[in-house]
Amino acid sequence: MTPDRALRHLQVAGLLLAAGGGRRLGGRPKALLRHGGVLLVERAARGLREAGCDRVHVVLGAGAEEVRVHAELSGCVLVDNPGWGEGMGSSLRAGLHSLGGTDARAALVSLVDQPGIGPEAYARVLDAFTDETALVSAAYDGRRGHPVLLGAAHWPGVVEAARGDQGARAYLKQHSAEIRLVECGDVADPYDIDTGADLGRPRPGGAH
Questions:
Q1: I need a labelling partner for 6 at 20 to 30 A (CA). Which of 42, 48, 49, 194 fits?
Q2: DSSP secondary-structure letter at 136?
Q3: Are 179 and 112 in contact (CB under 8 A)?
Q4: CA distance linking residue 127 with residue 11, whole number of Å
């Protein structure tokens, strides 16, 4: 890794949204679901680290105490979101607030229920970081998806707009002309874990 690239990686924090309650999965917290024998929260956190995020903040909500007991998340900063039931927007706000007192210049945002997205896709988006004004998104056949890199200059606007299950969607729509898309369809599959059948889906070759 070149010195410039290493410095960029130090300036970007991984932000894993892992608070969902899995209502369509019998109320099991998504963080504690297993895919390929590995807890979803462990797989995603490990992927962010392997991609180059030295700092990873994990937002917990449903089953937070169980996650703390059963998941191996050493080295991660665990952020409690008591308002997780309001939707993904509340978790994004909690995560960005937790990064506010750090020296991070951007957040690489990932969702816990997308095990088909791994370190290769994370790394591609991370490598597109330039400075705190950066807005970068993975793309799949040209369509925007996760992960998304939010430069710190955008955090106040994202926090203001993040409501319900929309996350950063409204803000990104307003700033679509500023987003740099990074194609990741050859190394990742952005499906969500929404049903029991999804847990049996094989991982694509590039998602570990």
A1: 42
A2: E
A3: no
A4: 11
Verify cis geometry, omega within 30 degrees of 0, for the bond prior to 147: yes
pLDDT tens digits for range 92-150: 999 999 999 899 999 999 999 999 999 999 999 999 999 999 999 999 999 999 999 99
Burial grade of 100 (CB within 10 A; 0-12, 13-18, 19 or more) = exposed
100: left (phi over 0), alpha (psi -120 to 50) or beta: alpha
Percentage of the chain surpassing pLDDT 70?
87
Distance CA 106, CA 3 (A): 18
**Helix 119-127 vs helix 3-11: angle between axes, to the nearest 10 degrees?**
100
Position 203 pLDDT exceeds 60: no
Amino acid, single-letter form, for residue 4: D
Instruction: Determine what percent of the chain falls in helix, strand and coil, rounding each to the nearest 5.
Output: 40, 25, 40
